[in-house]
Amino acid sequence: MVWVAVHVIDIVLWCIIAFSVGYIFFYAITYALGQLLIIKREPTPDDIRQKKYLVIFPAYGEDKVILHTVKSFLLQHYPHDKYSVVVVSDHMLKETNTELSKLPITLLQPQFENSSKAKALQFAIDNIHDNFDNIVILDADNIVQPDFLEKLNEISNQGFSAIQCHRCAKNAENQIAQLDGISEEINNSLFRKGHNNIGLSSALIGSGMCFDYLWFKAHVHLLSTAGEDREIEKMLLIEHIYIKYVEDIDVFDEKVGNEDNFQLQRQRWMSAQLNCLLSMMKNLPTSIVHLNVNYIDKTIQQMLIPRSMLLVSTFVWALLMSVFEMSWAYKWWGLFALTSLSLWIAIPRKMRNGGLAQLITHLPRLTWRMMSNIRHIDSENREFIHTSHE
What we know:
alpha/beta, 8-stranded mixed β-sheet
């Protein structure tokens, strides 16, 4: 009787995990097929209109990085009268604000009792009284190339009103930062490039985002959680607005370099994922009736188990089953192999090197710390969790 119960639990658990593994395997294949195909870039009109951009840097306690970031951005080749930079300085030092005020930017200094990125964006929109075509959202540590706005404007002129740029690692000083960078690229492959390759919307990532200004202005005050990027994505998908992922517009982002920040970051993401799932379920029946495939896909995406947990859990369970009942273990080893293959495909070729095996040794400990976040998940996700820079 006990063995029957254990067998039932084993099968149910396998089915739950297999759902997530099947999803990432499918999009690993769509990503890989897209890499094999020669995709011609859409022709660019000679008379591209130079749109006007509002560039916002929400900055909470970002004294270590914000000055360098803003000075770097001001080196854009794009005409200076066609873009405005706004820094929302929240809980930053007086000395930092003094230096920022010397730059050709708009410096806003709100006094939020409970800070969040959503509040910073809302404050910026409320206090900027000018007309723009597009809005760009960057994090305080994001570095871009001097042709960033030129490339973005080219894509925008092709008719895309929601754009996600290629966010990638700007640092790899230790193995934690390297793992975080690889994780980001896996997500780019599966949830952005892999989706766009079959005509589905890219996922947003929180920075390196560009939206139609009037659309954003009309929707920004609907943001209410610390997972503002998922809220924006939900609103776009409800309105059938396609999100374009642009692989060749890089936004260099600082990766977390220690385990504490890694855990805090994942806690924020897990809370945002749960909150987004609960929120999206309300509109799921209507989306099914109207065949809103992007919305259905995004809802399913919120149900997925994190990739590192999939890799570690399938391996551990396969080992356990090999000890207790080998005939039950085969399906787990198959799942582990499929998970490993999916992640391998999703890792860009330049990152597949000899050091990858050594990086993987950190996964069990980091995954355990991630699992400890489960008891801290906030289903409402209104608490702002800030990860400091090294």
